[in-house]
């Protein structure tokens, strides 16, 4: 009986690990889905009042005070340029520019902003490695569970464990403070001697992104799509293991 209990416990742990890996992959796929959509920037632009934010803070920029006069479509293009650049090792960041009221081309980013976004590009490359590693572990674990004939727990139970974990994590973030969590993650993720905090009055990048508010909304969009992808992944896994059970029956 003790051996059976330990075996069952081990099986549940493996299934929980598989479920965790499935959600990591779902987040990665969600990120990929949102890249060509520029992470919903055009939709969020109006939703969170980025236009008014730019009108308020851009004129205060001592070096580039006319950004508030740019067209909305030009701002969309600039954000798209940033998205493309950080997914291409930071290539093209320094050349991003807008046309001012005099028809002159003005560089969007300062040197420190370019360095920061290059750090973001490096972080994305590391996340790709994590995603590839998670995929290998995910496939390996599926094969192991399949060949070991370990019974799959209730589909609803696996989903409920995941969503309860998400609720707990969200609660912890809200308890600590979303801004505090955001800043601490930056401290951990980026080099100490590289600037990552930019005041709106000195940074068109931060102004046009209304940082960190925009990132919070993007995180919500990522999780929503990831949740859908996760359910689909787990449904396919259930079909595979259900087919195995029927075959052996």
UniProtKB/TrEMBL annotation:
Entry annotated with the keyword Membrane: yes
Keyword list, A-Z: Membrane, Transmembrane, Transmembrane helix
Membrane-crossing residue ranges in chain numbering: 12-37, 129-146, 158-178, 214-237
Residues in the signal sequence: none
RNA-binding in keyword set: no
Record's protein name: DUF1461 domain-containing protein
Organism in which the protein naturally occurs: Leucothrix pacifica
